[in-house]
Write the C-alpha coordinates for this entry.
Amino acid sequence: MDLHILEHRLRVTSLSKAGLERYTHGLIKLVFLRDKTRCKFFSLTEMPDDYTLVLDEEGFKELPQTDYLQVAEATWLALNVVSNGHSSTSSQTIGVTKIAKSVIAPLALHNVSVFLLSTYQTDFILVRESDLPAVIHTLSEEFSIFKEENGEPVPVDSNNVTNGFIKPKTAASPTVHPVLSPKNQFCVMSLDPDTLPTIATILMDVMFYSASLKALSADQDLDYIRFFSFSLIDGYISIVVDTQTQKRFPSNLLLTSASSELWRMVRIGGQPLGFDECGIVAQISEPLANADISAYYISTFNFDHALVPEEDIDNVITMLQRRQNGER
Protein backbone atom coordinates (compact mmCIF):
# COMPACT_ATOMS: atom_id res chain seq x y z
CA MET A 1 0.00 0.00 0.00
CA ASP A 2 0.96 3.62 -0.50
CA LEU A 3 0.82 6.50 1.91
CA HIS A 4 0.22 9.91 0.37
CA ILE A 5 1.16 13.17 2.08
CA LEU A 6 -1.36 15.62 0.66
CA GLU A 7 -0.49 19.17 -0.36
CA HIS A 8 -2.90 20.82 2.05
CA ARG A 9 -1.41 22.72 5.01
CA LEU A 10 -4.21 22.73 7.55
CA ARG A 11 -5.34 24.68 10.58
CA VAL A 12 -7.53 23.20 13.30
CA THR A 13 -9.84 25.69 15.00
CA SER A 14 -12.75 25.95 17.43
CA LEU A 15 -15.49 28.51 16.86
CA SER A 16 -17.68 29.41 19.81
CA LYS A 17 -21.38 29.46 18.97
CA ALA A 18 -21.61 32.82 20.72
CA GLY A 19 -19.62 34.32 17.84
CA LEU A 20 -21.24 32.43 14.97
CA GLU A 21 -22.94 35.47 13.41
CA ARG A 22 -19.52 37.00 12.70
CA TYR A 23 -18.50 33.94 10.69
CA THR A 24 -21.59 32.99 8.69
CA HIS A 25 -20.52 35.00 5.62
CA GLY A 26 -17.15 33.27 5.44
CA LEU A 27 -18.60 29.82 6.11
CA ILE A 28 -21.32 30.24 3.47
CA LYS A 29 -18.62 31.25 0.99
CA LEU A 30 -16.53 28.19 1.82
CA VAL A 31 -19.47 25.76 1.50
CA PHE A 32 -21.55 27.17 -1.34
CA LEU A 33 -19.33 29.53 -3.35
CA ARG A 34 -16.42 27.29 -4.26
CA ASP A 35 -15.56 29.46 -7.28
CA LYS A 36 -15.04 32.44 -4.96
CA THR A 37 -12.35 30.80 -2.82
CA ARG A 38 -9.35 28.59 -3.47
CA CYS A 39 -10.04 26.44 -0.41
CA LYS A 40 -9.71 22.73 -1.23
CA PHE A 41 -10.00 21.24 2.26
CA PHE A 42 -12.89 22.28 4.50
CA SER A 43 -14.51 20.41 7.38
CA LEU A 44 -17.07 21.67 9.88
CA THR A 45 -18.23 19.60 12.86
CA GLU A 46 -20.86 20.96 15.22
CA MET A 47 -20.93 19.99 18.86
CA PRO A 48 -23.29 21.34 21.56
CA ASP A 49 -21.09 24.35 22.40
CA ASP A 50 -18.83 24.96 19.42
CA TYR A 51 -17.83 24.16 15.87
CA THR A 52 -14.55 22.51 14.95
CA LEU A 53 -13.28 23.87 11.64
CA VAL A 54 -10.43 22.16 9.82
CA LEU A 55 -9.38 23.99 6.69
CA ASP A 56 -6.43 24.79 4.49
CA GLU A 57 -4.58 28.09 4.45
CA GLU A 58 -6.79 29.56 1.73
CA GLY A 59 -9.91 28.71 3.71
CA PHE A 60 -8.39 30.03 6.93
CA LYS A 61 -8.10 33.45 5.30
CA GLU A 62 -11.90 33.61 5.17
CA LEU A 63 -12.21 33.46 8.97
CA PRO A 64 -12.06 36.73 10.96
CA GLN A 65 -9.54 36.57 13.79
CA THR A 66 -11.56 37.27 16.93
CA ASP A 67 -11.68 36.03 20.51
CA TYR A 68 -14.45 33.62 19.47
CA LEU A 69 -12.00 31.59 17.36
CA GLN A 70 -9.42 29.34 19.02
CA VAL A 71 -6.65 28.15 16.74
CA ALA A 72 -4.39 25.19 17.47
CA GLU A 73 -0.79 26.35 17.29
CA ALA A 74 0.49 23.72 14.87
CA THR A 75 0.11 23.51 11.12
CA TRP A 76 -1.14 20.04 10.18
CA LEU A 77 -0.61 17.82 7.14
CA ALA A 78 -3.12 15.26 5.89
CA LEU A 79 -2.07 11.67 5.17
CA ASN A 80 -4.13 9.24 3.14
CA VAL A 81 -3.64 5.50 2.66
CA VAL A 82 -3.99 4.51 -0.98
CA SER A 83 -4.40 0.98 -2.33
CA ASN A 84 -4.09 0.22 -6.07
CA GLY A 85 -4.19 3.91 -6.87
CA HIS A 86 -7.39 4.58 -4.93
CA SER A 87 -8.17 5.46 -1.34
CA SER A 88 -8.37 2.22 0.57
CA THR A 89 -12.04 1.17 0.62
CA SER A 90 -12.01 -2.45 -0.49
CA SER A 91 -11.63 -4.28 2.80
CA GLN A 92 -14.60 -5.74 4.62
CA THR A 93 -14.26 -3.31 7.50
CA ILE A 94 -14.40 0.39 6.73
CA GLY A 95 -13.20 3.58 8.32
CA VAL A 96 -10.35 3.84 10.79
CA THR A 97 -10.42 0.11 11.58
CA LYS A 98 -8.54 -0.80 8.42
CA ILE A 99 -5.61 1.52 9.20
CA ALA A 100 -5.52 1.02 12.98
CA LYS A 101 -2.65 -1.48 13.05
CA SER A 102 -0.65 -0.23 10.05
CA VAL A 103 -0.74 3.52 10.73
CA ILE A 104 -2.42 4.60 13.97
CA ALA A 105 -0.74 2.16 16.37
CA PRO A 106 2.86 2.66 15.07
CA LEU A 107 2.52 6.45 15.23
CA ALA A 108 1.21 6.26 18.79
CA LEU A 109 4.09 3.98 19.74
CA HIS A 110 6.56 6.55 18.41
CA ASN A 111 4.95 9.45 20.23
CA VAL A 112 3.25 11.07 17.23
CA SER A 113 -0.09 12.68 17.99
CA VAL A 114 -2.78 12.36 15.29
CA PHE A 115 -6.04 14.13 14.53
CA LEU A 116 -8.36 11.90 12.54
CA LEU A 117 -11.12 12.78 10.10
CA SER A 118 -13.12 9.94 8.56
CA THR A 119 -15.38 10.83 5.65
CA TYR A 120 -17.82 8.92 3.46
CA GLN A 121 -15.01 8.42 0.94
CA THR A 122 -11.85 7.85 2.98
CA ASP A 123 -9.89 8.60 6.16
CA PHE A 124 -7.54 11.54 6.64
CA ILE A 125 -4.81 11.19 9.25
CA LEU A 126 -3.64 14.65 10.29
CA VAL A 127 -0.18 15.03 11.80
CA ARG A 128 1.76 18.10 12.81
CA GLU A 129 4.00 19.34 10.02
CA SER A 130 6.91 19.30 12.50
CA ASP A 131 6.30 15.56 13.08
CA LEU A 132 6.61 14.61 9.41
CA PRO A 133 10.20 13.22 9.71
CA ALA A 134 9.01 11.00 12.59
CA VAL A 135 6.02 9.87 10.53
CA ILE A 136 8.18 8.94 7.54
CA HIS A 137 10.72 7.19 9.79
CA THR A 138 7.95 5.19 11.46
CA LEU A 139 5.94 4.16 8.39
CA SER A 140 8.53 3.84 5.62
CA GLU A 141 8.98 0.09 6.10
CA GLU A 142 5.25 -0.59 5.82
CA PHE A 143 4.39 1.87 3.03
CA SER A 144 5.69 3.40 -0.13
CA ILE A 145 5.42 7.08 0.73
CA PHE A 146 4.57 9.83 -1.74
CA LYS A 147 4.25 13.57 -1.28
CA GLU A 148 1.82 15.33 -3.57
CA GLU A 149 3.26 18.29 -5.46
CA ASN A 150 1.07 20.23 -7.88
CA GLY A 151 -1.43 17.39 -7.79
CA GLU A 152 1.11 14.69 -8.66
CA PRO A 153 2.50 12.07 -6.25
CA VAL A 154 6.29 12.30 -5.92
CA PRO A 155 8.15 9.44 -4.17
CA VAL A 156 9.70 10.38 -0.85
CA ASP A 157 13.28 9.28 -0.29
CA SER A 158 12.95 8.20 3.31
CA ASN A 159 16.72 7.98 3.71
CA ASN A 160 17.12 11.67 2.92
CA VAL A 161 14.22 12.71 5.12
CA THR A 162 15.33 10.67 8.10
CA ASN A 163 19.09 11.16 7.70
CA GLY A 164 20.30 12.38 11.06
CA PHE A 165 16.82 11.89 12.47
CA ILE A 166 16.73 11.16 16.19
CA LYS A 167 14.24 8.43 16.96
CA PRO A 168 11.58 9.78 19.32
CA LYS A 169 11.20 8.34 22.75
CA THR A 170 8.65 5.58 22.99
CA ALA A 171 5.39 7.02 24.23
CA ALA A 172 4.36 6.40 27.80
CA SER A 173 1.20 4.41 28.39
CA PRO A 174 -1.62 6.76 27.38
CA THR A 175 -4.35 7.86 29.71
CA VAL A 176 -7.40 5.67 29.20
CA HIS A 177 -10.22 8.14 28.75
CA PRO A 178 -13.86 7.52 29.68
CA VAL A 179 -16.32 6.82 26.87
CA LEU A 180 -19.95 7.81 26.58
CA SER A 181 -22.58 6.74 24.07
CA PRO A 182 -25.56 8.97 23.27
CA LYS A 183 -28.74 7.38 21.97
CA ASN A 184 -28.80 9.14 18.60
CA GLN A 185 -28.65 7.04 15.45
CA PHE A 186 -26.40 8.54 12.78
CA CYS A 187 -26.09 8.30 9.01
CA VAL A 188 -22.91 8.77 6.99
CA MET A 189 -23.74 10.12 3.55
CA SER A 190 -22.42 11.90 0.50
CA LEU A 191 -23.83 14.36 -1.98
CA ASP A 192 -23.08 15.46 -5.52
CA PRO A 193 -21.52 18.95 -5.12
CA ASP A 194 -23.58 20.16 -8.10
CA THR A 195 -26.76 19.60 -6.05
CA LEU A 196 -25.63 21.85 -3.18
CA PRO A 197 -27.74 24.81 -4.39
CA THR A 198 -30.83 22.58 -4.23
CA ILE A 199 -30.42 22.00 -0.49
CA ALA A 200 -28.73 25.28 0.42
CA THR A 201 -31.59 26.56 2.59
CA ILE A 202 -31.88 23.27 4.49
CA LEU A 203 -28.14 22.92 4.95
CA MET A 204 -27.73 26.48 6.23
CA ASP A 205 -30.57 25.93 8.67
CA VAL A 206 -28.97 22.72 9.95
CA MET A 207 -25.50 24.27 10.19
CA PHE A 208 -26.37 27.61 11.76
CA TYR A 209 -29.83 27.62 13.28
CA SER A 210 -30.52 24.21 14.81
CA ALA A 211 -31.15 24.47 18.54
CA SER A 212 -28.48 22.85 20.67
CA LEU A 213 -29.79 19.90 22.64
CA LYS A 214 -29.10 19.67 26.35
CA ALA A 215 -26.31 17.19 26.12
CA LEU A 216 -25.01 16.47 29.56
CA SER A 217 -26.77 16.51 32.91
CA ALA A 218 -25.07 16.67 36.28
CA ASP A 219 -25.03 12.97 37.02
CA GLN A 220 -26.08 11.18 33.81
CA ASP A 221 -24.27 10.05 30.70
CA LEU A 222 -24.97 11.72 27.37
CA ASP A 223 -28.56 11.02 26.35
CA TYR A 224 -28.83 12.76 23.00
CA ILE A 225 -26.12 14.95 21.54
CA ARG A 226 -26.07 17.66 18.92
CA PHE A 227 -23.57 16.44 16.34
CA PHE A 228 -23.34 17.35 12.68
CA SER A 229 -20.36 17.07 10.37
CA PHE A 230 -19.91 18.43 6.85
CA SER A 231 -16.73 18.07 4.79
CA LEU A 232 -15.91 19.38 1.32
CA ILE A 233 -12.48 18.06 0.45
CA ASP A 234 -11.01 18.08 -3.06
CA GLY A 235 -14.51 18.21 -4.52
CA TYR A 236 -16.00 15.36 -2.46
CA ILE A 237 -18.73 15.94 0.11
CA SER A 238 -19.26 13.90 3.28
CA ILE A 239 -22.11 14.49 5.74
CA VAL A 240 -22.77 12.92 9.15
CA VAL A 241 -26.19 13.63 10.65
CA ASP A 242 -28.54 11.96 13.08
CA THR A 243 -31.62 10.26 11.66
CA GLN A 244 -33.95 13.07 12.73
CA THR A 245 -31.91 15.65 10.83
CA GLN A 246 -31.59 13.35 7.81
CA LYS A 247 -35.36 13.49 7.33
CA ARG A 248 -35.09 17.18 6.51
CA PHE A 249 -33.07 16.47 3.34
CA PRO A 250 -34.52 15.20 0.03
CA SER A 251 -33.82 11.46 0.10
CA ASN A 252 -33.22 11.30 -3.65
CA LEU A 253 -30.15 13.55 -3.39
CA LEU A 254 -28.29 11.82 -0.56
CA LEU A 255 -25.90 8.99 -1.31
CA THR A 256 -25.58 6.27 1.31
CA SER A 257 -23.87 2.90 1.39
CA ALA A 258 -25.69 -0.04 -0.18
CA SER A 259 -26.64 -1.31 3.28
CA SER A 260 -27.94 2.11 4.43
CA GLU A 261 -26.32 1.27 7.75
CA LEU A 262 -27.12 3.19 10.91
CA TRP A 263 -24.31 4.16 13.27
CA ARG A 264 -24.03 4.86 16.98
CA MET A 265 -21.52 7.19 18.56
CA VAL A 266 -18.86 6.61 21.17
CA ARG A 267 -17.54 9.91 22.50
CA ILE A 268 -14.06 9.76 23.98
CA GLY A 269 -13.09 12.06 26.84
CA GLY A 270 -14.77 13.38 29.95
CA GLN A 271 -12.73 16.59 29.78
CA PRO A 272 -11.19 18.30 26.72
CA LEU A 273 -8.41 16.10 25.38
CA GLY A 274 -5.92 18.61 23.98
CA PHE A 275 -3.53 17.99 21.10
CA ASP A 276 -0.33 16.82 22.79
CA GLU A 277 -1.40 13.45 24.13
CA CYS A 278 -0.54 10.47 21.94
CA GLY A 279 -2.42 7.22 21.59
CA ILE A 280 -6.02 8.42 22.03
CA VAL A 281 -7.11 7.20 18.59
CA ALA A 282 -5.11 3.99 18.99
CA GLN A 283 -6.75 3.03 22.28
CA ILE A 284 -10.13 3.05 20.50
CA SER A 285 -9.24 1.84 17.01
CA GLU A 286 -7.02 -1.11 17.96
CA PRO A 287 -9.68 -3.00 19.95
CA LEU A 288 -12.16 -2.36 17.14
CA ALA A 289 -9.68 -3.67 14.58
CA ASN A 290 -9.05 -6.79 16.68
CA ALA A 291 -12.81 -7.40 16.72
CA ASP A 292 -13.24 -6.57 13.00
CA ILE A 293 -15.70 -3.79 13.78
CA SER A 294 -15.92 -0.92 11.31
CA ALA A 295 -15.67 2.62 12.61
CA TYR A 296 -15.68 6.15 11.33
CA TYR A 297 -13.59 8.41 13.55
CA ILE A 298 -13.96 12.18 13.81
CA SER A 299 -11.63 14.19 16.02
CA THR A 300 -12.75 17.62 17.16
CA PHE A 301 -11.01 20.44 19.00
CA ASN A 302 -12.00 19.09 22.42
CA PHE A 303 -13.21 15.50 22.04
CA ASP A 304 -12.96 12.46 19.78
CA HIS A 305 -15.87 10.50 18.34
CA ALA A 306 -16.11 7.01 16.88
CA LEU A 307 -19.17 5.89 14.92
CA VAL A 308 -19.74 2.13 14.97
CA PRO A 309 -22.53 -0.01 13.45
CA GLU A 310 -25.64 0.12 15.61
CA GLU A 311 -25.70 -3.64 16.11
CA ASP A 312 -22.18 -3.51 17.58
CA ILE A 313 -22.61 -0.64 20.05
CA ASP A 314 -23.23 -2.78 23.17
CA ASN A 315 -20.19 -4.95 22.48
CA VAL A 316 -18.05 -1.90 21.77
CA ILE A 317 -19.03 -0.12 24.99
CA THR A 318 -18.42 -3.29 27.02
CA MET A 319 -15.04 -3.80 25.34
CA LEU A 320 -13.89 -0.21 25.91
CA GLN A 321 -15.12 -0.09 29.50
CA ARG A 322 -13.20 -3.27 30.26
CA ARG A 323 -10.13 -1.62 28.80
CA GLN A 324 -10.77 1.42 30.98
CA ASN A 325 -10.92 -0.87 34.02
CA GLY A 326 -7.64 -2.50 33.06
CA GLU A 327 -9.22 -5.77 31.95
CA ARG A 328 -8.37 -7.73 28.82
